[in-house]
Amino acid sequence: MDYGRIDAYVLQLVNSSTPERTAWNMEKIREGKKASWNYIDGCMLTALMEMTRITGDERYASFAEEVADFFVEEDGSIRGFKPDDHNLDDINEGRVLFEIYERTGLEKYRLAADKLTDQLADQPRTYEGNFWHKAIYPNQVWLDGLYMAQPFRALYEKNFGKGDYSDIVKQIRTVHERMLDKEKGLYYHGYDASKTAFWADKQTGCSANFWLRSLGWFAVAQADLVDILPEGDDRKELAGIFADLMAAMAKYADADTGMYWQVPDQGGREGNYLETSGSAMMAYAMLKGARLGVLDKEYAAKGKKTFDGIMDKYLTFTDEGIDLDGICLVAGLGPENNRRRDGSYEYYISEPVVKNDAKGVAPFVLAYTEVKRLTA
Description:
Layout: H1 4-15, H2 26-31, H3 39-55, H4 58-71, H5 97-104, H6 107-121, E1 140-142, H7 143-159, H8 166-179, E2 180-181, E3 186-187, E4 190-192, H9 212-228, H10 233-250, H11 276-292, H12 298-314, E5 315-317, E6 322-324, E7 327-328, H13 345-348, E8 353-354, H14 358-375
Antiparallel strand pairs: 1-4, 2-3, 5-6, 7-8
């Protein structure tokens, strides 16, 4: 495997990006819009910070700092942030604030982290106490949202709070209780606590199918949380939930590539395909979990096989650089006026598949940093 060319690929993306137009945000590019404070760029900035940490090359982190500086005002307010949306996705980019604050000492980054934490204090919750995914999705919990909000909250508690992780663990525990299919060991994409959404099962409140990337978000959230939380009962509980999910997912890996299917439990069904972003998330989660000692060592080999499988199937070296293909652009559930997004098998396989989008590139790069640690 020619891993070394991946460094050049990531630098190529950085060098062709500005804070207002990032080369990896395919949604903004397709819509002809400038970049905003969003989870897509947030995922990539997290990966860039990790690249600097593992390689020592400051160019990655410098661009992340440039983006943060562009969006964060001196009083900690964030350009374009819309509090009334109560959108968990918009919390994710805040993950980089803690390290950038440590690197620069600029108070505006701490103030921005405070503002995002205050925003979460006002986030609507289900009757069990879980955050709504967005204001437009009342009473709904999506696996995606666990990644978007909970590692940020944990980092805030670790850096600026009192080290109280109990609500974080409680929200994941509720997902474990409400959204897990015990027979398959997989979690449904979404859950409506009111059981009234058109896509929700009237008995369980869960959506109809499993979606790979949502499972990937959930897996990465847990891998990152067990890295952040100190030893103790909370971390032990999360590590157990994490290990069970990874054991279940491993059963659905494609034997040849180690990759995973867009609808994970229906591999080989007509229209289903091996998807890059969710596979990269699983690779990262397994590699990191094994490194942290919360997964058996065998998972490092499983994760590396998945990573190598992505490279073989979807990574193309060109004269211009590298293309990473096989990335589902986006998928969701509803809202009410968008009934095409109904959680059906047919829906998940119908969404566009694109190249070089950060939802695939960022976890691929994160998995790469874990491979570099493994092979160092």
